[in-house]
UniProtKB/TrEMBL annotation:
Protein name per Swiss-Prot or TrEMBL: Thioredoxin domain-containing protein 8-like isoform X1
Domain of life, per lineage: Eukaryota
Database matches in CDD domains: TRX_family
Keywords: Disulfide bond, Redox-active center
The Thioredoxin domain, residue ranges: 1-115
Family annotation (Gene3D superfamilies): Glutaredoxin
Length: 115
């Protein structure tokens, strides 16, 4: 599995969709972080192309960022405010940890903390 192969490295998974405006805007910034943080593994999952994976990880809104280390979720960022999010359904479940309205600065700070 992808997460097991990462070993002790931090893994940042961005759940996104092609039709999502905020996803399109944040994607270049996430790509820039992937170039800056060589010890962090970044991955992108299109929720429409990988519906089963999105359901497995309980993705209800995009973009959603999940951070893993040693195959355990360490934090979850969901952009759920209407100005920042494209909702796939009207319901959001409560993750282990959640930060609503997460932005690149908040995500980057969490990456630095968990590296």
């Amino acid at each position: 599995m992808f997460l097991k192969a990462a070993g002790s490295k931090l893994v940042v998974i961005e759940f996104t969709a092609k039709w999502c405006g905020p996803c399109k805007r944040i994607s270049p910034l996430i790509h820039a972080m992937s170039l800056q943080y060589k010890d962090v593994i970044f991955a992108n999952v299109d929720v429409d192309e990988s519906q089963e994976l999105a359901e497995t990880y309980n993705i209800k809104a995009v973009p959603t960022f999940q951070l893993f280390k040693q195959t355990r979720t360490v934090n979850l960022f969901s952009r759920i405010k209407s100005a920042l999010c494209c909702n796939r359904s009207g319901l959001m479940t409560t993750p282990i940890f959640e930060m609503c309205g997460a932005d690149v600065k908040t995500l980057e700070a969490k990456i630095r903390e968990l590296m």
